[in-house]
Design goal:
30% helix, 132 residues
């Protein structure tokens, strides 16, 4: 049975369930930062998914990326599946702006996370409800 990795559970807010993935919000209000986690056990790499799930992941990722760029008016969208700290397959989708805290560097390790207040979570949840 699928379980979300404890670190993702600690660092994120679950927003929705898509056909393949769970849609998470990283609890860092510095960036609109979303994560897709395929609902599959013991998968750490995209190539470990069956071909149908690989296509579905790419489809959900592309749809999410398009939605984020449009709704957040992104200057750039960073998409990454690193897995160095959390081995469970997860794909980051980070909306970037030329004036954000870390631009043009990657967001990892640049600044401490700034947790959302409940109103911010509610606003993101409402916006993302039209996506899922």
């Amino acid at each position: 049975m699928f379980e979300l990795h404890p670190q993702l559970h600690k660092d994120c807010i679950v927003l929705a369930r898509l056909e393949l993935c769970h849609l998470l919000l990283m609890n860092d209000a510095s960036y609109p930062w979303f994560i897709l986690v395929p609902d599959r056990e013991n998968i750490s790499e995209i190539h470990q998914l069956c071909e149908a799930d690989q296509h579905l992941l790419m489809s959900e990722s592309s749809r999410l990326g398009h939605y984020l760029v449009e709704h957040f008016k992104a200057d750039k969208l960073n998409i990454a599946a690193l897995g160095n700290v959390v081995p469970q397959l997860h794909v980051h989708h980070i909306v970037r702006y030329k004036n954000d805290l870390s631009w043009p560097k990657p967001v990892w390790g640049q600044h401490p996370a700034r947790a959302y207040i409940q109103q911010g979570i509610d606003e993101i949840r409402d916006l993302m409800a039209t996506f899922s």
